[in-house]
Every structure is written in C-alpha cells, then in structure tokens.
C-alpha cells in the first residue's frame, strides 16, 4: 500500500457508490464502509470468500502494473487512469469478444452513459470474470465454457445495475442462481465438473477408445457453436451437454437408464495404421507422384530437359490420375475414421464428407476415361473451340481441360500459401460468402484460425524445403531409380526361368516377382531418406546461424576472462535504455567498447546486476562463498 499505483487501484475498487447492498450481508462492514466492488459481487452471485480475497489482489496488481507503465505518466499518480483500465479490460476480454463475434452474438459488456460510472462498471466486469475464473477449478481448461458463463452473468449484472424489471414476476431482476454462500460453486461449477468427471471415468485410464469418451477439448468444442445457447440460463439439466450425468440428476425418482454422451464435435481419433497416410496425405501424395514421374522418365530414357516430348508428356500426365485415386482414398478415410462422431455433427458437415467422396470418385473415373479418349468423334465446331490446345499434341484435349479443372482448387491453395496475409484475413472473416467458400475445404472451428507465419518466415521455410527436396529427388533419380531400369528390363526379357525354390507366381509373365524384390528396398529407402536429408540440411543451416550469432565463441575460462572487460559495454548496449538511438548495420563482428576510467557510471550499472547474479549463484550453491572456488 506504499506505492501510489497500488493506492490508485485500491481506491478504484472502493468506489461502491450507487450499489444496492443486501440488507443481511455483513451489516457491520457495510456501516464501516469496509466493502469494495468484489464484496458486492460476492453478495450478489454467491462467490467464495477466499476466492474474493485472491482475485482482489490479482485485480489490484493488474491495474497497478498497467497504471504505472502508462506513457505519459498520469497525473495525479494516486488516481487510476482510464487508459490502464481499458488496457487490462482489453486483455481479459479479448477471447470473450472474439467468441461472441464468432457465434454472431452481441457481447454483454454494456457501459452506462455517465462518465463517472463507466470506470466502476468496467471494474465490475473484470472482477466478475476473475471471480468466475478463480472458482472454476478444472473448468478453466474450457475457456469458451467460461465465456458462456460470463456472457450470461454479465447480462444479469447489467440488469442489476440498470434496475431492469422481470416481465414474469414484475420484480427487479436477480441472479438466476441467487446470492447464497458458495452458490456459484454448487449450482454452476459442480454440474459442469460432474460432466468432466463422468467422461474421465469412461476413459478407463486411457485404455478405452477415444471415440467413447470426451476430454476437456471435446467438451469445450460444444461451446464453439451457437447451439450452446440452447442450455439457457440457468442451465437446463436436460440439456445435451449434461447427457452423461442425466442419470445422476434423476436419482431414485425415475427408472435408471444408461447415460448418454456429450459426443465430439469436430475430431474423433480412431486408432488405426491408416492415420499414417491420412495425417500426412499431402506428403505421401507428393512422394508417390514424384516417384511415378521419375520412374516414367527413367523408363523412357530421357533427360529432365526432354520431358516436353509428346510421348513423354503424355505418359507423365498420368500422375494426375494417381493423384485423383489418392484423393479418393483420403476422402474415404475421412468419412470412415470420423464416423463415430457423426451423431454430434451438423447435417452440413456430414453432407460435406459424403460429397467429397462422391466428387473424388467422379474424378477418379473421369480422368482415366479422358486420358484414354482420343477425341476423334468430336464435332468440328467443338474442335475449333479447343484449337488453342494444339501445341500440346499427343494429349487428348478433353483430358487437358479436365486436368485444368481438377487443378483449379490446388492453384487457389497455392496462391493462398504464397500470400499468408490473404489467407489469414479469409479465415478470420465472418462474412457469409467467405464462410460458404470455406465450407468445402475445412470445418469452421473457433481456434486456430489465421495462425500462419509471416511472409519472410514463409520464404525462408520454402527455400529450405525446396533445396532439400531438390537434392533428395536428384539423388533418388540418378542413384536409386535410373540405375535399376536396365536390370529391370533385362529381368523382364528373360523367359523360361527355372527356380530352385518354389515360385510364388508360377504363371506370371516377365518375372514380376523378381522385379518387385529388386525395387522394394529402393522404394522403402526412397520414402524414408527424407529424414537423412533433413538432418544434413538442418546441420548446415544450424551451423550457419550459429556462426552468424557467434555461438560457442567463448570455449574456455581464459577466453571468458579476456572478454569480461567488454561485458559491461554489451550490457549497456542491449539492456540499458538510452535516449540516443544508434543505427547499427549488419556485421559478423560483435565487439563492444571496454569501460574506461571516465565511464565509471556505466560500469556501476553492470556491477549491480553482476553482484545479483553472483548472490543468486551462491544461494543456489552453484558457487562457493570462498573466492576462487567453484563447486
């Protein structure tokens, strides 16, 4: 209480002017004027006494820290500045406001008209949120659930302060759960905690399948949809969220029925080895298509510069058929592995997965047909329309158009990848047209939207992986795949081979069994050697970054002593604020001026810090109290 900023925060909390206190609530302290805003919230909503004490200290420190950091300094310092209140309020309610905007609801942070009451109302809202958070226990791992609770309680708080009258009873609005002692814990938190406890028991210590129980994230996803408002306030016991504890609520009054489950909203983990492909489908697809293209090029015996020949280009274009088949496999896996969660999904989400399978199946059938179609039966008028495709003779024009249409979504995804700021804006947008366009590509979830790296980081990331993959594919083509083509052709041209062991494929032509045994180790190495190339490139890149940052330059105690004279200069350059801003260009050399006799004041700043470091080392027994001795 000796600091002015703390006095300012405490004084703001004691501003209880205009609040109506319950007549039976701590009458002695009311008469003495020893109650603040958090005490009034406890009286109205039934928070615990110790929770109020903890959050009072929490809120005072938040306001005081924000108040003292203001620039320019507020005058007078012992009066809480409105900028400090707004700064803390914006941090506390950032997620809540985003949640309301995501669900299309207006937030409950409603301020009065008078300027004198605005600060009091803001502190009441912040105190209410902190009291909810402090008493939520494990429910605080469900932040959107807390936002739902605060949304309704803040609306009731506004009704209490505005003196609104209930349409049903004709009396002033009162909190739905009353102001009894520990009413919030017993009537709000306990039912939610029972749901968490019930779902946790279903997991059987992690042995049960993920689809039969819900963790914190799964339960929190229920509040990512506007359907959560069907719970009402006070929350209905027969709501969908309380399915798993409905038998506990019935007790002995009704017949015992098997409790249901809240279910999962977006993701259901099904334990299967197919996740190896589904989780990294783009990587597997890219590797398979690259392997097919390199095998075709090596089999044709052409160099990478001769791939634009019509017969080679026609053969290489078959990779789009493979891509369509792999996309069909991915769509089927998405539908099958997420099937246990469909009972909680919306109809539009289920429809999207089914349509993806149908569309993928259509492409997997249409592309091969267009690939094999010579297009000789087309009319002259239609051929004239496709005359711009004449430079690509050797490939059916209909197939070219089908491939262009098939690649259109991929081109759009590439544009969004190149410009992450555009993708970030699209994902964070709440426009209905944007939602409709994104409906096909991904479900609309609350978290993770717009989380993309900056443009510069993306460029560095792309250059790193393009360089790595170029080296990998060059090695795979010239060292692994191309040398096997001639032996493969020779093996396939051998006839009437008599095996000493039993032949697994006695009627197979061209010795396919021997070809498979020859290529299988190479293909396995092809899919696995990326980690080797990554280790090489990360070592080279990490060494370059370390050299630029001069890591490991000081390797002995003698070198440390020789550089110790320049340590105060580095400390003053980077850690001590200065009004003079020096423009420092890029340099591999990082030398700092040594402290001379006429700059003792700068050395004193570093000496104070260094003494604290040494004292900390001695307290932790890292160094001995005796000089020159190290434990």
Automatic annotation (TrEMBL):
Record-annotated membrane-spanning stretches: 283-300, 312-333, 353-375, 396-419, 458-479, 511-528
Residue intervals of the 1,3-beta-glucan synthase component FKS1-like domain: 120-236
UniProt KW keywords: Membrane, Transmembrane, Transmembrane helix
Keyword Transmembrane applies: yes
Keyword check for Membrane: yes
Protein name: 1,3-beta-glucan synthase component FKS1-like domain-containing protein
């Amino acid at each position: 209480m000796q600091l002015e900023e703390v006095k300012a925060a405490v004084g703001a909390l004691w501003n209880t002017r205009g609040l109506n206190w319950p007549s039976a609530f701590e009458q002695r302290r009311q008469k003495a004027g020893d109650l603040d805003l958090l005490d009034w919230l406890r009286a109205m909503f039934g928070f615990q006494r110790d929770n109020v004490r903890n959050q009072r200290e929490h809120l005072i420190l938040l306001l005081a820290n924000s108040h003292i950091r203001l620039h320019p300094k507020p005058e007078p310092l012992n009066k809480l500045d409105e900028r400090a209140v707004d700064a803390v309020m914006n941090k506390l309610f950032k997620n809540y406001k985003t949640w309301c905007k995501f669900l299309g609801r207006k937030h409950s942070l409603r301020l009065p008209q008078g300027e004198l009451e605005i600060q009091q109302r803001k502190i009441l809202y912040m105190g209410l949120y902190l009291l909810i958070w402090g008493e939520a226990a494990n429910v605080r791992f469900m932040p959107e659930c807390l936002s739902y609770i605060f949304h309704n309680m803040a609306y009731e708080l506004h009704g209490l302060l505005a003196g609104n009258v209930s349409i049903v009873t004709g009396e002033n609005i009162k909190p739905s759960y009353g102001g009894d002692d520990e009413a919030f814990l017993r009537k709000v938190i306990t039912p939610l905690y029972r749901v968490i406890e019930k779902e946790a028991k279903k997991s059987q210590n992690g042995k049960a399948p993920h689809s039969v129980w819900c963790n914190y994230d799964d339960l929190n996803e229920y509040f990512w949809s506007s359907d959560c408002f069907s719970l009402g306030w006070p929350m209905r016991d027969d709501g969908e969220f309380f399915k798993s504890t409905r038998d506990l609520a019935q007790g002995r009054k009704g017949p015992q029925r098997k409790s249901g489950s809240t279910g999962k909203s977006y993701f259901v983990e099904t334990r299967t080895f197919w996740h190896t492909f589904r989780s990294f489908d783009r990587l597997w697809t890219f590797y398979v298509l690259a392997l097919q293209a390199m095998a075709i090029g090596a089999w044709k015996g052409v160099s990478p510069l001769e791939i634009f020949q019509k017969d080679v280009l026609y053969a290489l274009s078959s990779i789009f058929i493979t891509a369509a088949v792999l996309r069909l496999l991915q769509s089927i896996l998405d539908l099958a592995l997420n099937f246990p969660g469909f009972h909680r999904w919306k109809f539009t989400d289920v429809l999207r997965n089914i349509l993806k399978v149908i569309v993928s199946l259509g492409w997997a059938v249409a592309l091969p047909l267009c690939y094999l179609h010579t297009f000789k039966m087309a009319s002259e008028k239609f051929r004239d329309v496709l005359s711009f495709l004449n430079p690509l003779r050797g490939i059916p024009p209909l197939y070219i158009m089908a491939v262009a249409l098939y690649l259109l979504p991929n081109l759009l995804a590439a544009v969004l990848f190149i410009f992450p700021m555009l993708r970030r804006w699209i994902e964070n947008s709440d426009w209905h047209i944007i939602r409709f366009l994104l409906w096909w590509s991904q479900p609309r979830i609350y978290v993770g939207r717009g989380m993309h790296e900056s443009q510069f980081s993306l460029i560095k990331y792309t250059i790193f992986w393009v360089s790595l993959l170029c080296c990998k594919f060059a090695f795979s083509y010239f060292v692994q795949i191309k040398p096997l083509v001639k032996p493969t052709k020779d093996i396939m041209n051998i006839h009437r081979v008599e095996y000493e062991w039993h032949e697994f494929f006695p009627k197979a032509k061209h010795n396919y069994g021997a070809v498979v045994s020859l290529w299988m180790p190479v293909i396995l190495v092809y899919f696995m050697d990326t980690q080797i190339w990554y280790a090489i490139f990360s070592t080279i890149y990490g060494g370059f970054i370390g050299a630029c940052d001069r890591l490991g330059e000081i390797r002995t105690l003698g070198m440390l002593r020789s550089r110790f004279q320049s340590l105060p200069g580095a400390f003053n350059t980077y850690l001590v604020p200065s009004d003079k801003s020096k423009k420092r260009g890029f340099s591999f050399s990082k030398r700092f001026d040594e402290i001379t006799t006429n700059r003792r004041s700068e050395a004193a700043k570093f000496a104070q810090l260094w003494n604290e470091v040494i004292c900390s080392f001695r307290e932790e027994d890292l160094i001995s109290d005796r000089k020159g001795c190290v434990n």
